[in-house]
Specification:
Belongs to the inositol monophosphatase superfamily. CysQ family. The protein is α+β, with helices and mostly antiparallel strands. It has 10 helices and 14 strands. The protein folds into 2 domains: 150 residues, Fructose-1,6-Bisphosphatase, subunit A, domain 1 (Fructose-1,6-Bisphosphatase, Chain A, domain 1), CATH 3.30.540; 107 residues, D-Maltodextrin-Binding Protein, domain 2 (3-Layer(aba) Sandwich). A 7-stranded mixed sheet has the order 1-2-3-4-5-6-7, sandwiched between helices. Strands 10-14-12 form a 3-stranded antiparallel sheet, with helices on both faces. Strands 8-9 form a two-stranded parallel ribbon. Bound molecules: adenosine-3'-5'-diphosphate and magnesium ion.
Length: 283
């Protein structure tokens, strides 16, 4: 699939409804992922094939319904990109990581997710993050975000089975920092050492964004490498819950960086920052 990088495509006007639809698609990746997860035991460490199998099966479950949902938007998916089949995307497109947190899958700690994010004008506007091992789904779009329990492959619950979430106001002291469980670099450690953090919580994959979005954390610094498909969905959920994701110089983290191979630079995800916190972080 290809598109002109500057092309703009019509998006549904109700971005929260779009996020719900993305959630319904993300949940479809649950059954193939959990089949591979349950089948593989110790053999996985010596032979990574069940991970690849789960990645590919999850992507195959997601892409057709996603293309039907958003027929005018190019889809950039991790496995297709790895196979050299990525469309060139710049402004309006969809980012898919069918199995984010390969290390967590291999380590069998359940902290892996399915990520689907919609980008408009280079910004994430709707997203769904699904944790199949726990059956938890986060969705966000249009300034509204929710968390709910959904078993792999099931339908989304009615409103009574969902919880609206909002990032908490960043406390001046005793901030809770989320960090990668598997990729923690020296620069991130130095950032944390300079902050009034009471607690550092490790979490895999896009769960770090979701935990801040639901008020269980304040900051997620990431100075090590990530790809756009790792962050877009969680970024959309967090932004819809009142948080933000910025680069170290304070600019919003943007998407469609084709010339950089869709790699993100360093970023810091925040809950609802106070003015004092903004001033403290100013370059
Ligand atoms: N050296 C590296 N280069 C590029 N991306 C990296 C990387 N190390 C980690 N990542 C990204 O970080 C993601 C995992 O995030 P976390 O460490 O927060 O759980 C990985 O997603 P995948 O597991 O889907 O490949 C991968 O894309
Ligand atoms: Mg990933």
């Amino acid at each position: 699939m290809s598109t002109s990088p500057g092309a703009s495509a019509p998006l549904p006007s109700d971005l929260f409804t779009l996020a719900e639809a993305l959630g319904s698609v993300a949940v479809l990746a649950g059954p193939p992922i959990m089949r591979a997860y349950c089948r593989c035991t110790a053999a996985l460490k010596a032979d990574g094939s069940p991970v690849t199998e789960a990645d590919l099966a999850a992507e195959a479950a997601i892409l057709p319904p996603l293309a039907k949902l958003l027929p005018h938007l190019p889809i950039l998916s991790e496995e297709q990109a790895s196979a050299g089949q990525a469309p060139r995307c710049a402004q309006d497109f969809v980012l898919v990581d069918p199995l984010d947190g390969t290390r967590e899958f291999i380590d069998r700690n359940g902290e892996f997710t399915v990520n689907i994010g919609v980008i408009a004008g280079g910004n994430p506007v709707a997203g769904a993050v699904y944790q199949p091992a726990k059956g938890v789904l986060w969705i966000g779009g249009g300034g509204r975000a929710q968390v709910m329990t959904v078993l792999p492959g099931d339908s989304l619950p009615p409103p009574a089975g969902r919880r609206d979430i909002r990032a908490r106001a960043t406390p001046e002291r005793g901030q809770v920092a989320l960090v990668s469980r598997s990729h923690l670099d020296a620069e991130t450690k130095a950032f944390l050492a300079a902050r009034p953090c009471a607690q550092t919580l490790p979490a895999g994959s896009a769960l770090k964004f979701c935990l801040i979005a639901q008020g269980d954390g304040d900051v997620y610094p990431r100075f090590g490498p990530t790809m756009e498909w790792d962050t877009a969905a969680g970024h959309a959920v967090l932004a819809s819950a009142g948080g933000e994701v910025v680069t170290p110089d304070g600019a919003p983290l943007r998407y469609g960086k084709a010339d950089q191979g869709y790699r993100n630079g360093s970023f810091i995800a925040w809950g609802r920052r106070s003015e004092a916190e903004r001033a403290h972080a100013a370059p």
